[in-house]
Amino acid sequence: MAVPKRKMSRANTRTRRSAWKADLDDLQTVKVAGRQMTMPRRFAKAAKLGLYEPRDEYQG
């Protein structure tokens, strides 16, 4: 485990932590049961196979 050599100030710690941000999912348009739907790419194949029913907020 890494051990810091010096104490890091509260301002520096919070700045370092706030710099990391998660990215939004890329949405892909998929035709499922005759309807065009927009959903995250990782769900597209499952939706085509009928294993995943997308929620309303993903529909385009």
Q: Gap between N and C termini, in Å? A: 46 Å
Unreliable stretches = none
Mean pLDDT: 78
Structural class: alpha+beta
Number of strands: 2
Radius of gyration: 21 Å
Helix run count: 2
- Outline the biggest β-sheet: 2 strands, antiparallel
Fraction of residues in β-strands: 15-25%
What coarse outline follows from CA principal-axis ratios? rod-shaped
Instruction: Give the strand order of the largest sheet, numbering strands 1, 2, ... along the chain.
Output: 1-2
Furnish the topology, listing elements before pairings.
Layout: H1 10-19, E1 27-32, E2 35-40, H2 44-49
Antiparallel strand pairs: 1-2
Structure description:
The model has no long low-confidence stretch (mean pLDDT 78). A hairpin with a 2-residue loop joins strand 1 and strand 2 (35-40). This protein has a domain at 24-60. It has a two-stranded antiparallel ribbon. The protein has helices spanning 10-19, 44-49, and strands at residues 27-32, 35-40. The relative contact order is 0.16. The chain is built from two helices and two strands, in the order H-E-E-H. It is α+β, with helices and mostly antiparallel strands and 60 residues long. Helices cover 27% and strands 20% of the residues.
